[in-house]
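Request:
You are asked to prepare a plain-text protein record giving the amino acid sequence and the C-alpha cells, at your earliest convenience.
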Amino acid sequence: MKVLKIVLLILVVISTQLGNAQGKHETQIQYLSGTDKDNLVDWDFYCSEGRKSGEWVKIGVPSCWEQQGFGNYNYGSDDEKNRAKEFGLYKHTFNVPNNWKNKDVKLVFEGVMTDAEVKINGKLAGEIHQGSFYEFNYTISKLLKYGKENLLEVKVNKISANESINHAERVADFWIFGGIYRPVYLTISPKDNIDRVAIDAKADGNIISDVFIDSKKADKVQLSLFDLKGKKLQDIRVENIQKEIGKFKISGIANNVKTWNPEQPNLYVLQFDLLDKKGNILHQINKRIGFRTVEVLEGDGIYVNGERIKFKGVNRHSFHPKSGRTTSKALSIEHAKMMKDMNMNAVRMAHYPPDTHFLEVCDSIGLFVIDEICTWHNPMLDTKVARKIVKETVVRDVNHPSVLLWANGNEQGWNPEVDDDYAKWDIQNREVIHPWSIYKKTNTIHYSHYHSLINDAYTKDKILFPTEFLHGLYDGGHGAGLDDYWNVMWNLPLSAGGFLWDFADEGIERTDRNNEIDLQGNKAPDGIVGPYGEKEGSYFTIKEIWSPIYIENRFIRNDFNGVFRIENRYHYTNLEECTMTAKWVKFEAPNEGLKTTILDENKVMLPSLEPLEKGTFKVEKPQNWQSADALHLTAIDAHGMEIFTWTYPVAKPKEVSNSKIDYSTEGSVKTETTNKIIKVEANGIMYSFSEENGLLTEVKKGNKIIPLNNGPIILNQKDKIIDVSVKELDGKTEIQVTFEEKKWMPAWSTIKEKRSDIIKWTVHSNGLLDLKVEFKGFRNLKGFRGITFSFPEEEVAGMKWLGDGPYRVWRNRMKGTKFQVWENDYNNTVTGESGFVYPEFKGFFSSLYWSKVKGNNNNGFTVYCKTPHTYLRMLTPQEPKENKKGKTHPEFPKGDISFVMNIPGIGTKFQFPESTGPQGNKEHYFGNDDKPIVLDLTFEF
C-alpha cells in the first residue's frame, strides 16, 4: 500500500475544484483514508465473525473488508440463515492543528456498508447512518481536540437494523459487501461559509441557484464564470437575489456560453463568493457546471437543448473484481471511454448512486445519466429512510449536467410516497421515473419482446424506453437482436431508445478461494465486457449498430459506382465535422503473414448533413480498384475517436482462392480400392474414402495423420445414395457420390422437377483435394444446410483465416466484424463463465474465403472456399453450466468443422432468439430457382 507515500498524501491539503491555492477563504480537504482502490491508508480494524476475526489488526481504507481477507462472502440471493452478519470496528487517529479552532470542520463519508456509528474522541458524531450507497457527513468542530491527536471510531454493521434497507440492498441481485468502501475526509471551511449550492444552468445561459449558508455575517453572493483552465471569462450579471433563512436564491445570466451535450460536453466553473456588508469575502467555492435544458414532453419525447434524444445506453455497476465496490477515477474513466467507444450516449446507474468521480467523468466525456436510489422489488423502502436517501442522493448529485432523470428505485421497489421529495432538493425539477413501470409520462418496460415495440397498447402515448433490455447473459443478448430492436426504436417517434443490461460481468476475486473469479453461476455474467474489461463480441456489434453515421448495407460488384447512402444519427453534430478515409486493400496468402497491403488510400468527402438528415457520399475508385480484395472505410469523429470501420469484400471468394491455389501438374495419382476403402495417393499424401458413401475416412501425409475425416455429411440430408463412382483421369482422380432423385419445385414453377444431391471429390497429382457438393435448397428450413466433418478438438491448435472476424457471429448478431485476415489461438472460453480469453475460438465465422487450421501433433490443413456467403463452423462451444433452457447456447451441427449456408440466432436470459426479432427466427429460406446450392472447396494438406 506504499505507506510512506500515503502518509505524505494525507498530509497534503487540497483546495476544491479550482487550482491548488490554499486560500483562507476556500474549503480545504484532508483525507483520513486513501483516495481509491489503488491508494489505501491503514486503520486499526476488528472483525466480529468469519475470517481474520476476533483480534485487532490493520485494514486498508477505503475497501470492502471481504477483499482484504475478513468476514464472509454473500450474494444478495443467499437465504437469510446463510447471510453473513459480521460487524467491523475501525479506529484511526489524526492530528488537528490549532488554527482550525475558528473553522467549520465536517467529517465526510462517501459510502459505508451498511449501518455506520461514528464517534470522535469517544462521543457520537451524530445519528447512526443507514444505507450503503449514500454520502453523509457530520459537523465535528465541537468534538475536536485542537493542537492534539484525535481518535475516530466507526462501528459498521454489514446488515442494517432497518429491514427495508436490507431488502433494498442486501437481498438484491448483486454482490453484498461490508466496510468503509469509499473515501473518508475532513472539510475545513471558514466559520461563515457556504454549506452547499444547487444550480440550474440553462442552455440559454440563464442561471438559477440556491446558495445554502451557515453564517450570520453574510450579506450577498457574487458569481463569476471560469473556463476549466482557471481563466476568468465573465462576472455573472445577477438579475435577482433573495435572502431567505439559511440561503440566498439567485438568478442571473451568462453570455455567449456553449451548451453541454454528449457530443460536445462543454463545461465551465461557476465561482461563488460569499460577502459580508463591507464586501469582504467570507467564503469562496467553485462548482463545475454545464449549460443545458432538459424537457420531458408528454406524448412526445425527451428533449435536451431542444433536440429529441434517443438513449443508446447501458446499465453499470460500481465494481471491480479485485476491490468489489471500491473503485477509482481511473476505472470510471476506463469504463466511460469504453461506453463512448461503443458509440453509447447514456448510462443508467444500477442500482444505486455511483462514486462521485463517475458522474464527473460522465460530465466531462459526455454521457446522459439516469441516477437511481437502491431498492429491490417489494417491499419498498420505508418512507422515513427513503426520504433521507432521496435527499442525500439529490443534494450530492444535483449539479451534474450529465444527470437527466432520477429513478426512484428498481423493479417494483419504488416508494411513491417520496416521488415528490426529489423536487424538494432538485432545483432543476428533473423528471422521476419508475424503472420497469408505466409511470406518468414514461414506459420503461424491462426485457420486452421485439413485437412489443409496435407500441399499440393502452400505453401507446407514453415515451417508451426500456431501462433494461436484451439481457447479456453469457454470449446472448446485447448485440444479438439489437439490430432488429434499434431499427424499430430509431424510427418509432415515441421511442427514446433504451439501456442494455449490463456493462460488465460482476465476477469477484474470492480471497477465500485463492482469488478465483466467482460469478454466482448465471446471476452475474451479464456484461458486454468481462470482469476486467475484456471485450466480448457484442462490444463491436453495438459499436456498429449505434454508430452515429449509419451506412446502408452495400455490396461491391463489377458495376460498383462508388455511391453509399448515409444518414446522420447524431443529435447535435453535422456530419461535415467528421472525417472518413477509404482504403483499397489486398491481403496475404495463408502461408504468409497478416500484412495488409494498401493499394490506394484517399479521403472521402462526407456531405454536410444536419442531425437526422439523409444523403450520399462517393468513394473514388482508383484504376486498379478491381484488383483489391476489400474496401475499408474508417470514420473519425470531431474528437479524433474512431466511430467505426466498415469493410466490404471486393474480390469474390472464387477469385481470391484461385489466385492462391497452385494447380501445378507435378507428381502423379495412384488409386486403388481394397476392403471397401478407396485409396488415392498423390504427392506423398494418402487419402482414404469410403466406397459405400464417399466420405473421407483418413488423410495421411508422410507418416502423420491429419485427423480431418467423416465428411462431407450433408446436413439435413435424408436421401439415399444410389451410386459411388471412381474415375481415373489424366493427372487426377474423381470420386462422385450421387443421391436418389427427389422432386423439387422451383419458386417460379408449378411443375415439380427431379434433382439429385451430389458429392464430388477431385484428387490432383500435386496433392490438392477439391470438393464440390451440390444440394437442393429449401424455401423453409429450420435446420442447417451445408456440410460437416470430424476433427478432434484436442488436435486443434488455432486458425488463421480470411473472412469476417475476429469474433464469431450469430444469425441475429452479424454486425461488428471486419473483413480481413485474422489469427486466433485455440481457447475454450465459455463466454462470461470461464477463460475470459476473447475472441472465443469456437463458433460460427462469416464470409469465409480461406482458413488455415493449425494442428496439435499434426500438420493441420488449409481450406479455400469459393462459394460466397459461407459460414465456417469451428468446433462446438462448451455449454455454460447454468444455460437458461437452451436460450443462450444454440444448437450446433453434428461434427466439428462445418461449412454451412445458415446459422442460428442466440437468445437472452429471458428470451429465445425468435422473440428478439426477425433475425433470430429459426426459419431459413433457400430457393435457388434454376440451380442447386453448390459448396466449392479446395483442401491443401
About this structure: The chain has nine helices and 66 strands. The CA atoms of residues 550 and 567 lie 5 Å apart. The longest strand covers residues 87-96. The radius of gyration is 33 Å.
